[in-house]
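User: My collaborator sent over this chain with a note saying "see what the structure looks like." That's all I know about it. Can you take a look?
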Amino acid sequence: MRAPIVFTGLALAASAHGLNVLITNDDGFGTANIRAMYSAMTELGHNCYIVASSSDQSGQGSRLIFTNDATLKSASEFGIIASGSPSLGQDPHDDHIWYYNGSPATQILVALDHVLPQHANFSVPDLVLTGPNYGLNIGPFLYGISGTLGATQTAIERGIPAIAFAGAYGKHTAYYDIQASTSAGLQDPATIMGRLAATLAQAFIDKASRANHTFGGRVLPLGYGVSVNLPLISSFTDDSCVNPPFVRARMTGGGEFTSKAVYDSATGLFGSANYADAGTSMCINGDCSLPGETEVVSGCKSSVVLFTIDYDAPYGTSNLSDPYAALLPDIVQLNNATDLVGGLGVNASVQGSAGSSNSSSSASTKSGAGRVMLDTFLSRAAMVAGIVVLAMAL
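Assistant: Without extra context I'll predict from the sequence alone. Here is the result:
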């Protein structure tokens, strides 16, 4: 393990006036990742509200599912809300955190059309953040399936800038199980991912504030969104990947995949398997020199992709000749840059704090889980060379 490093000021401070931020995901309102991002954004001075599903809604894409039941038929994920409680309600400990028994895209609508106007001090947020998802959302195939990206697209279609985050670690954990210090003496991966997400969001906010006349006071132009995939954070076991740099990437490229049907003759049932095809690596729009997301996250780097909700084929030229240069903050670097800077900043500390409430046995168990996930991720990464098929969670 390398020597401890000291935090410096590259992690961006909050702007003079915090933004109104809506946060959601497809994994549930009580998961560690969404709460860590909420905490990190709040600490930067932003007025944040969570409106997210009462239980896991992964893989719903942009489907609109409103519940037909006024009460929960079963307890929410991790038992935070009891069965029989209203299908829409507040977290028992924080009135800025709400749950609704519906799909991820529906969370955006319920937030914009009911929760925020009725219960917050604003109706329309300045920014929507989604995730960080448990499992990578890589390539155009998952762009259409992921509930996290479905919520992001819904927000953009309602005219609100939105940034989606996803991480390689795929095991759901409750927010109350976040460790102050792992067995490696480092911050919990959820905490680090939350900090990374907030740092990048703040960089976008700061860049937009400097270019206020260009984007009309918006974080992103109308119709634009951002998809970010974070590599496996290793802090359960070591510090080999705890401060990944943000790098420019494209949604289609080497290693991206679609799916195929697989028939099991023993059961008579079908399942799915990942399938690489030229259709997922075509470059039609954007900068074809950029690496694909899979190539980026196979190392300890975070991919940052700009997208729009205009699905039409390109005609003529965009009003942004180089959208990456115009929109991305300097914290998002070129993949082949000589000296990549970690997403949390130069020499940022991820040391865990003393007094963790978790027992050593719990820390040991999670450390083992982290190692299993690391092994799984390394297997996935091999797909870049065409050796194995990726098996990433939505």
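A starting point for your reply to your collaborator: Confidence is low (pLDDT under 50) at residues 1-15, 357-394.
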